[in-house]
Amino acid sequence: MAEHADAPGTELVHLELDAGVATITLDSPRNRNALSAQLRRELIAHLDTAIADDAVRVIVLTHTGSVFCAGMDLKESKGADAKQQGVTEVPRILTTLWDSPKPVVARLAGPARAGGVGMVAACDIAVAARDATFAFSEVRIGVVPAVISVTVLPRLSARAAHELFLTGETFDARRAVEIGLINSAVPADDLDDEVARYTAMLCRGAPGALAGAKEMLRRERPATMAADFAAMNELSASFFASDEGQEGIRAFAEKRPPRWAAGS
């Protein structure tokens, strides 16, 4: 969590599109990319733009500076009552990341704290440099990691969640992989190559199928196996019969890339 602000009038979040990959960059390094009101507003706007753009296949969430995101901006939080706290806007960010029909990859070259960890957990894939660190530091300043728990708890083992939420202990990227918070921890010099490896694989997937797979992964499972099979059989058959499914089948038979993967 951070306490220093950036110069007024400066854009704090940038969006760039290249070969189907939309890169959204948090650029508030003097504020350790804290979730200030301006950064929250710009991040949501760029996420909405990327999701709505048919040319975007994958979204990468990254940062400038040495810190991925320090959590809420404590300077803005100081003195505000419960209804004025900026944390009330964080669910919109986390929900947008979580529900995005396009895969979202988090790229961390540095630490994430509190709300920053919530964003990492909301992404589909997360890659960090090995020297990046993480912490749920909320309890150490007298608050609770409540909002971010919605995206974090589905990722973590119960034991790890209890330990790390209650102690606020800092842990490294290797531990983050072990407990399911991130997918990969690599040397800093290999970070961009690892992100590119994931985005290249994701771009080989059909856009509709990726969206459908994400929705399937997020769904609540029925109470019985029979009901689950019935729903999944219907879903599977609909995708086999879809335009994408039929194109994929033809491409496989003709030993060529499907149209969505051409050039990937």
Question: Summed up, what is this model?
Answer:
This protein is α/β, with parallel strands linked by helices and 264 residues long.
Q: What proportion strand?
A: 5-15%
- Tell me the helix content: 40-55%
What is the first-to-last residue Cα distance?
A: 39 Å
CATH C-level name of the largest domain: Alpha Beta
Please provide the count of β strands: 9
CATH architecture of the largest domain: Alpha-Beta Complex
Whole-number mean pLDDT: 92
Give an overview in words.
- By secondary structure, the protein is α/β, with parallel strands linked by helices.
- It folds into two domains: 13-203, 2-enoyl-CoA Hydratase, Chain A, domain 1 (Alpha-Beta Complex), CATH 3.90.226.10; 206-261, Orthogonal Bundle (Lyase 2-enoyl-coa Hydratase, Chain  A, domain 2).
- It has helices at 37-52, 74-77, 90-99, 115-122, 146-152, 158-167, 173-178, 191-203, 207-218, 225-241, 243-253, and strands at 13-18, 21-26, 58-63, 104-108, 112-113, 125-129, 133-135, 171-172, 184-186.
- It has a six-stranded mixed beta sheet with strand order 1-2-3-4-6-9, with helices on both faces.
- Helix 3 runs parallel beside helix 4.
- It comes from Pseudonocardia ammonioxydans.
- Pfam families: ECH_1.
